[in-house]
Amino acid sequence: MSKLLIIVTAALFAGTASAHTIFQKLYVNGADQGELTGIRAPDYDGPITDVTSNDIICNGGVNPYHQPVSQAVINVPAGATVTAEWHHVLNQAAGDSADPIDSSHKGPVISYLAKVPDATQSTVTGLQWFKIYEDGLTASTGQWAVDRLIANKGKVSFTIPSCIESGQYLLRHEIIALHGASSYPGAQFYMECAQLNIVGGSGAKSPATVSFPGAYKGSDPGITVNIYYPPLTNYTIPGPAVFTC
What we know:
The protein is mainly beta. The chain has three helices and eleven strands; from the N terminus they run αββαββββββαβββ. The protein has a five-stranded mixed β-sheet. It has a four-stranded antiparallel β-sheet with strand order 2-1-4-9.
């Protein structure tokens, strides 16, 4: 077996039993909103792999959860910086080498918003989503968004657009792990939805939206991709362009 094949094989199997992750806390302008407050988090940390499934929306919706779903709605000023925090499992213990996610799980980090009548509503199908954040590969260094997330102890920060309408929204925050993505289905999608009430938005601009499922295809170059060989010189993050004010 060649040295390259050994490295790739090791990467594919690294952390398979303990590599997963859950988005389980949100900060608003640095203020901790509390563990699982306003977040539709399951107690299982595994991925979604089928981009045509409704589970790709908010990790299964409300029904499959094995714990009570938070009914809190987090107040967020338009223009605020929010920080999502990921951990391998709920009630994370110290010393877990796979926390917040196994380092083999290279890939992008993405955030979307969808306006809803009620952020606690159980139905998540048929919503219209717009992308507000993405971070992928820095080809010059070989560093992925997930590497930066791990270095920041599971935290990712991004801005809520100031020009959107005030109102209730779902925030869909996502990691796509590409260590097994050379064929489809192979990419692993980790996402949870947070329940937000955005205040002070100007409503000056209406974003173009996409649907989930539908925004991603298994054939997308950012979903079916060999990240090991040949070395990537660029990476196309799936989904629409990031909405800006």
